[in-house]
Amino acid sequence: MSAETPASTESTADTASVKFTDLALPEPLMRALAEVGYESPSPIQAATIPPLLAGRDVLGQAQTGTGKTAAFALPALARIDPAQAAPQVLVLAPTRELAIQVAEAFQKYAHFLPRFHVLPIYGGQSYYPQLQALKRGVQVIVGTPGRVIDHLERGSLDLSQLRCLVLDEADEMLRMGFIDDVEAVLKKTPETRQVALFSATMPAPIKRIAQTYLKDPVEVAIKNKTSTAANIRQRYWSVSGMHKLDAITRILEAEPFDAMIVFARTKLGTEELADKLAARGIAAAAINGDVQQAQREKTIQNLKDGKIDVLVATDVAARGLDVERISHVLNYDIPYDTESYVHRIGRTGRAGRKGEAILFVTPRERGMLRAIERATRQPIEPMELPTIETVNEQRVSKFLGRIGEALEASDLAMFRELVERYEREKNVPAIEVAAALAKLVQGDQPLLLPQPARAERKPFERAERHDRNAPPAPRHERHERSDRHPPRLDDRSTTPPAALGNKGEMLFGDDAPAPRRQPAAGHAPDVGMETFRIEVGHAHGVQPGNIVGAIANEAELESRYIGRIDIRDEYSLVDLPEGMPREVMEHLKRVYVAGQSLRLRPAGAEDLAGGRSGRPAPGRRPGGPRPGGKPSHGGPRKPFKPRPPR
C-alpha cells in the first residue's frame, strides 16, 4: 500500500442512530452488553465493529476515552473459537495499567463465552504466573511490547494461531520509545492475521507502520465533540502526597459546599467510603447497583432534604440524578473514559448554576487526566488542598458555633446549678469545669488535626504545585526506560526522596524511617542517596532502562530519584534515596528483571570495589541489537545519565 495511492476508505457514515442490535454481534456478547447497560455504540464503535467483523484491517484515529476498547474487543471476541486454547488475539498496549484495563474489558464482554481466558502480560510481574497461564491455554493476550517479546524469545508464547493483532494507543508506544518492539512483534505474527491500529494522532512513524503492515485498511477518524459546561470549575488534586481519605476529609471540612456527589469506581468502594466518612462525622450515604430502588429513592430524598450532605455513588447508580443543591462533584476514583467524566460532573452546574468538579489523580493516572483535558478542550487546574491550619480553624469555628446554639437554649438553669455546685464542692474554677464538659462532648475524636514538624511540612506543601505546562527536561537529563516495567505517567513531581513512603505516601515525624549508613568504601553516592546491590548484570542481558523501569514502577518512585547505575558482570549497583521504607525494600527483593530476582540489599565495601562505570553491556550498542542479532527491547538510546536528586 503506497502513501500516494492509499487503498483505504474513510468512514463517514452517520452513526448517531445505530444500536448494538444493528451490529450483528453474537448473542453471548449482546447479553454481556445488556448486563452492563450498553445500548448505543459510540461513534468509534459503530464505525469500526462492522469492518472488523468482516475481517478487514482498520486504521482508527480517536482520542483516549472514546470507547475504542469495546470497538476492537467485541469483534475480536465474535471471531475467536473458545474451544481452541491457543492465543488468537494479541493486543499491544503501552503501559501495564492499560494492559490490565483492556484485559478486564475483554473479561467483562466475554462473561457468557464458555471456556474463555484472557491473560495480561507485562513487566514488573513475576514470569511464573504468566508461564503457568500460557501453559493452561488462553485465547486473548494483552501485553506490553517488551514482555511479549520476552515470551516470544523464551518460546513460551506461540502466535502461530493468531487471528487478530491490535495496536492500542500506537502514538503513545511511539512516544515511549517502543515502536521498534511493536514492529518486531508484527514481524513474528502470521501473514494472515487481521490488524487493527488505533492512535490518537498519526505521526509519520505510525503512518509507516500502517502502510507496511495493514492490508487495504478501513480508515476511521473520529472528531471528539465532548465538552463540559463552562460554568463548572474543574480542579484536580494529585494523591501521591497523601491518602485519598485524608484529602477528601480536608476538602469536606474546609471547602464551602451545599451537597456533594462523590464517585467511586466499585460498589464495595462506595459502601466503604460512605462508612469511613460517617465515622468522621460527615453525613454521608452510598448508592450503587446493589441498593434496592426504594432505598435509593429514600437516600436521594434525604439528600434533597439536607439530611445527608454527601452521596457516594457509582456511575450507574447516579444516572439521571438531578438534585438542585448539589454544588460539588468529586471524582474519588478517576473514570476510565472521558464520556463518564463528562456525565459525572454534569450532576452539578445545572440550569445555569455554578458548579465545582474535583478530580483525584494518582501519578499513574496522569495520562487519563491529559486525555480528559484534550477531549473536553478545557484545562483542569491543580487545586490547593486546604491546609491543616484552615481545617482546624473551621473545626474550632463549628465547635464555638455549637456552644452558641446551646447558650440560646431556654433550659440551661439546671445545668448552671450543677456547674456552680461542682465549683463550690470541689473548689474547681468554672472555666475548668466548662473545659472538661467540652472535652466530654467532643469524645474520642480529636478536635484538631495534628501539625507535622515545621521543617518537614514545607516540601510536602510544594510537592504538587508544579507547572504542568513547563517544557520537558533536556533529553540528556531524562531516563530512557524499558516498557517491560512501564514508566509512571508523571515525571514532574518535586517531592524530596527522603520523605517518600510506601505507594508514594509522604512520611513525617515518627513514621519516617531512619536513614541507613553507607558502607565506607569505594565511590560514595550523592548526598541523600545509598548504594544497593541487585543480582542482575551483563550476563543476564540487562540494561539500565530495565532496572529504572522496574524500580520506578514497583517502588512507585519517581525515576529522577533513581541515581547512578553500574552494571557489573553478575550484579549491578544502583543508588536509591536513603531511608526507603522497609516494606518497599522487601518488595523490591522479589521483583524480577531480565528473568532474575533482584534480591536487593545495601552494597558492601567488596561490592563497591572496582569503580563505577554505568556502561552498557560489552558488545552491545545502547538501543541496538544484542549479540547474535536479537533485537533489544526498550533499552536506552544513549549512555545512562540520570539527573542527581535535588
TrEMBL record:
Residue stretches making up the Helicase ATP-binding domain: 49-220
Compositional bias annotation for Low complexity: 509-524
One Pfam family this sequence matches: DeaD_dimer
Extent of motif Q motif: 18-46
Basic residues composition-biased segments: 635-646
Biased composition (Basic and acidic residues): 454-493
EC number: 3.6.4.13
Localization: Cytoplasm
Keyword list, A-Z: ATP-binding, Cytoplasm, Helicase, Hydrolase, Nucleotide-binding, RNA-binding, Stress response
Hydrolase among keywords: yes
Domain Helicase C-terminal residues, every copy: 244-391
Record bears the keyword ATP-binding: yes
Catalytic activity annotation: ATP + H2O = ADP + phosphate + H(+)
Enzyme class: hydrolase
Start and end residues of each stretch annotated as Disordered: 448-524, 602-646
Main location: cytoplasm
Source organism superkingdom: Bacteria
All residue ranges annotated as the DEAD-box RNA helicase Q domain in the record: 18-46
PROSITE patterns: DEAD_ATP_HELICASE (PS00039), HELICASE_ATP_BIND_1 (PS51192), HELICASE_CTER (PS51194), Q_MOTIF (PS51195)
Gene Ontology molecular functions: helicase activity
Family: Belongs to the DEAD box helicase family. DeaD/CsdA subfamily.
Known role: DEAD-box RNA helicase involved in various cellular processes at low temperature, including ribosome biogenesis, mRNA degradation and translation initiation.
Xref: PANTHER family: ATP-DEPENDENT RNA HELICASE DEAD (PTHR47963:SF8), DEAD-BOX ATP-DEPENDENT RNA HELICASE 47, MITOCHONDRIAL (PTHR47963)
Protein name: ATP-dependent RNA helicase DeaD
Organism: Novilysobacter selenitireducens
